[in-house]
Amino acid sequence: MPKNFKHISFLFFLSVVFVTQGQDKDAVTFAMNLSKEKLGINERLRVDFTMNKDGDNFNPPDFEDFRVLMGPSQSISSSWINGKRSYSKTYSYTLAPTARGKFTIKQAAITIDGKIYKSLPKQVEVTAAVDKPSDQMTVDDIADESLFLVAEVSKTSPYLNEPLSVVYKLYFSSTIGITNYRPLDNPKYNNFWSQDIPVSRPVPQNGTYKGKAFRYVVLKRVVLYPQKVGKLEIEPLSLEVSLEVPTNKRGFFGDRIYSQANKTVSAGRRTINAKELPVEGKPADFSGAVGSFDFSVSTSKTKLNASESLQAKVEVSGKGNLKLFQLPEPDLPSSLEVYEPEFDEKVRTTLSGMQGKVSNNYTIVPSFKGKYPIPSISFSYFDPKTEKYRRLDSDEILIDVIQGPTSVAAGNIGVVGTNKQNVIATGSQFNFIKLKPDLKAIGTDYFFGSTRFYLWLLLPLLLIPSAVIFGKKREAIASDVIGNRIKSRNKLAKKYLSKAKKELGNKDDFYIALEKALHHYLKAKLKIETSEFSKDKIEALLAQKNVDETTKDGFIGLLTNCEMARYSPFSDVQMHQDYNKASEVISYLDKQL
Question: Source organism's superkingdom (predicted)?
Fold first, then answer.
């Protein structure tokens, strides 16, 4: 081979090497790096996807057999050294294994300069749990082991309409500090009648969780009454919590340095198995009362004159679902004029359920003289403690009308319900006409034919139309049950809205009054009972009434704020905004409904 040719070949080889090295320096790299290739099931794995050029459309693997605790978080590094630019971009994930074994973390892909680059898959071995000293734990590891949200349910198999309580507790280690929290998802209690019990201020207490000592705060308390038989789900409460977690670093004076961390915790779904009430021994007049009750019927007086009024009260007191059943109605004689009852409710709700009393107050006006019996009334309820039905009967009450006109209709027999009972009339019912009256001559002041005579003669004729109109109007008002309830609820709505205005600045009382105002307003406008309340149903009913989206969303938003205010901080500005919004939304609803 010629000598010159050997020199030419050697020079060509050197030029290729230098060109290749130059190209390698500018080549795109995209790689996956693991913090460890072997770890215990109780450890955490950090996965980094690093590239030396910025790219688009990053597509991570599905991380099968791992749970993503954090990520993706991005970090970018860029520098100039001797006139040359160095660039690095990293996507990071923190993973927790879900089982033991050997697993493969598959490829990730990204587009750089129009080309798709893929990382190489890597294998990870997960072993049994290991004892890991705290100095090897990351901030996320400490947060995972130091913070838990738990929903404690008092009963898992209650009867229909039997109360159960759910208390949401946030457990945390004494080594960490909680700086803030906010709800991510509020549970919806579908198929339950629910009542929140306000938590004025979370106070840390000592407790245990899974056999270990923890501190905890109560964030939310709610009492539920199942309205449906079978398996019912309680949705989870989720929170985002900001923490201060201790590190292994020390400050200048030797004090421990804390690091900020964010953690999402959830109470998890809970399932309740609501049992049906027994069929055996169920009374025919059972109206759904469940609990332990007393029953009474009383009157304000038993002796009066005709056209005077008395009050009859039908009252149930005790502990149970006082707001979720109908009170029995008295069966009164037809000779007694009875007005639509006024409902009175004095009920407070604790973690053990509703306590207090409910009553119907009837106004009764007798028209004729006589004695009228109010028959005994029965009230039945189911006692979940004894798992038996009980019946309570009131005493018969006799109303004695002393003075007044005597009823001669139907031979002085008054009708009581469907059974006829005698109304005992007193006094003389028939008088003989005198055959020899004592007549006296009329004086000079002759009354018949005078102006006074004709005025007195025409006066009854003028009063008859007024009496008829007044009687019809009174009768219409008394018979308009729905109208009377609507008026009553409108008054209650205005009352609580006015109370909410007075409580501006006092978060708990303000939002309780505002929520009651919204509830009573809906009762009046949509004619629905408290037991039917759920935001989904309200939203559906407003949609049926063709309420516009803005007004509907505003109303639902106010209800949501009332719920959130029980365990979240709200400012005075927010309260003023909610009050003004409530007045505005109610005004818009009035126009549309």
Answer: Bacteria
